Amino acid sequence: MNVIATLPLENCPALVLNADYRPLSYYPLSLWSWQNAVKAVFLDRVNTLCHYDRTICSPTTSFQLPSVVSLKTYVRPPTHPAFTRFNVFLRDGFSCQYCGDANDLTFDHLIPRSKGGLTTWDNVVAACSSCNLRKGGKMPDEARMWPNLHPRQPTVYDLHSQGRSFPPNYLHESWQDYLYWDIELEP
User: Fold this and answer.
1) What's residue 3's pLDDT?
2) Average pLDDT, the chain
3) Which residues contact 136 (CB under 8 A, 6 or more apart)?
4) CA end-to-end span of the chain, whole Å?
5) Distance separating alpha carbons of residues 62 and 66, to the nearest angstrom
6) pLDDT per residue as tens digits for the range 104-121
7) Which burial class, exposed, middle or buried, applies to 78 when counting CB atoms under 10 A from its CB (0-12, 13-18, 19+)?
8) DSSP labels for 130-174?
9) Residues 6+ away with beta carbon under 8 Å from 30
């Protein structure tokens, strides 16, 4: 395929929306590579809502790259997000729940595993390494360390809402009508 335009292809991801025109995910933002977006268009799995000013050509056709696509079939989001390190950090705003530091985050078990604590939403918080070491195997009262927010299982909506607090470094102008961050897009 020949390529017409100046924007590098790797800088042409497509924003992927569910059939209800909401992003599948805010953090990480639901994006497909240009190759996957073009494949989905040709397989008739998506509707193209916006295009880049970028065209790719084959010997018989030219094709404008999609910048926003929506799935033709609604994907029901999970009601309970998976318990993962990333989701715990996202729930806790990527900051230590004891001192607020955002560097070198780890898991901290409020009730230490050595005292029967489980690795669950209600017992784990994000903690920087130094706070985690300082608390050690002690209970919060023993260590005199209490998390800023009481840990709980978030909903998918909670994680989407929290994810909007962390806009990505790159947002194409065509995505603006589909994303809800209080920021200005760079030209």
Assistant:
1) 47
2) 89
3) 112, 143
4) 28
5) 13
6) 999 999 999 999 999 999
7) exposed
8) HHHHHHTT--HHHHT---SS---PPPHHHHHHHHTTS--S---GG
9) 15, 16, 17, 23, 24
For residue 15, CA distances in Å to 8, 20, 75, 171 come to 17, 14, 15, 9
What integer pLDDT is reported at residue 46 of this predicted model?
Answer: 98
Report how far apart, in Å, the C-alpha atoms of 177 and of each of 23, 174, 185 are: 11, 7, 12
Place of tokens 């715990």: 88
User: How far is 150 from 122, CA to CA, in rounded Å?
Assistant: 8
pTM listed for this prediction? 0.72
H-helix or E-strand containing 64?
strand 62-71
- H, E, C per residue of 164-180: CCCCCCCCCHHHHHHCC
Q: Where are the alpha helices (DSSP H) in 46-144?
A: 85-91, 129-135, 140-143
Instruction: Give residues with Cβ within 8 angstroms of 108, minimum separation 6.
Output: 97, 98, 124, 125, 126, 127, 131, 132, 135
